[in-house]
Amino acid sequence: MLGTVDSPDSFEREWHDMRHGSLLEGFPEYVGHEGRAAEIRLFEIGIIPGLLQTTAYASALANGDVRRGGITPEQADERVSVLAERQATLVRNRPPTLLVVMDESCVRRPVGGAEVMAEQLERLLEFVALPNTMLQIAPYAIGERRPFNLPVNLLTLPDRTVIAYAESQMQGHLDRESTFVLPVLSDYHQLQAESLSQTESVAMINEVRKGIP
User: Fold this and answer.
1) Whole-model pTM?
2) Could you say which residues of the chain have pLDDT below 70?
3) Domains of the chain
């Protein structure tokens, strides 16, 4: 364990010091803020957001990067270990409100085989039962009304400052400027309005889970 659950600043330093071959610019600082955020908003495409991933699902993704030569097995182990530390933010004494919108592709794309995917979908159903969470799926049908084509993270800090973090395949960017952050927050609210309700999203997850052989 990295021993950083109660120390976001040292957690950020751990990320700087790690031998992580694919660490994106801005992400270490983002992780430090994430550990003390009052509210976390996430949008993801293609994969389940890290804070909601099971160990097996996260390992399958990391091992895929190993097979492609992107990272070493040791770096894959570090990635999964640090993800577990980040997930501890959900069970601290005063957990953040966590609002998640996932593109439909996140639940329909198989990762790690049937057993891993079934466990992952079950984790999502456990997540929606928590008192501080909301999960919505942005269905394919919303088409061009989906405002984001890349993953987006929005953090509301205890002083109500909002920070936006977005990343592409090769680059991450952390922004505090209101001229950038407020339009992203507005687009996120629109995304929530266009997405399925949590009840409808749970129904879709159950439908996908039943289709797993």
Assistant:
1) 0.86
2) 1-24, 169
3) 8-210 (3.30.870)
